[in-house]
């Protein structure tokens, strides 16, 4: 299964959390279809990569989208909407007690995973994605 990992890239970036989520996706037997979120922030021209087109296409064509919504991100919200409108599975991950957009909280056809400590993310995602299943 192709899983699009959606995480804040500019403001509120949490690289270690993103890497933990990617590891849980891979260890569940799935492919992270957005590996660029784990690398350095892109500072390229439009001629090299059209971030909007790449990310919208990725979110629309994945089998599932896993989004870190612990901190607000316009880009993550746009990717969630693209996946939702394309009928994809949407899994939202957030820290307990954090304020999450009411639009996301009231969205149907989503799964919400809440963690207290970041160590819990790995097991929560493995469980949601069906550890070892392809």
Characteristic terms for this protein:
5 strands; 134 residues; five-stranded parallel β-sheet; alpha/beta; single chain; globular; 5 helices; Rossmann fold
CATH architecture: 3-Layer(aba) Sandwich
DSSP helical segment count:
5
* H/E series: EHEHEHEHEH
CATH class: Alpha Beta
Strand content: 15-25%
What shape does the CA trace take? globular
Point out poorly predicted stretches: none
What kind of sheet is the major sheet?
5 strands, parallel
Compute the number of strand runs: 5
In total, how many domains does the architecture comprise? Answer: 1
- Strand arrangement within the widest β-sheet reads 2-1-3-4-5
Helicity range of the residues?
25-40%
The CATH topology label is: Rossmann fold
Describe this entry's structure for a reader.
- The chain is of the alpha/beta class.
- The protein has one domain (2-129): Rossmann fold.
- 38% of the residues lie in helices and 19% in strands.
- The protein has 5 helices and 5 strands; from the N terminus they run E-H-E-H-E-H-E-H-E-H.
- The chain has helices at residues 15-27, 51-61, 74-85, 102-105, 119-129; strands at 2-6, 31-32, 64-68, 89-95, 110-115.
- It has a 5-stranded parallel sheet.
- Helix 3 (74-85) links the parallel strand 3 (64-68) and strand 4.
- Helix 2 (51-61) crosses helix 3 (74-85).
- The N and C termini lie close together (6 Å).
- The mean pLDDT is 92.
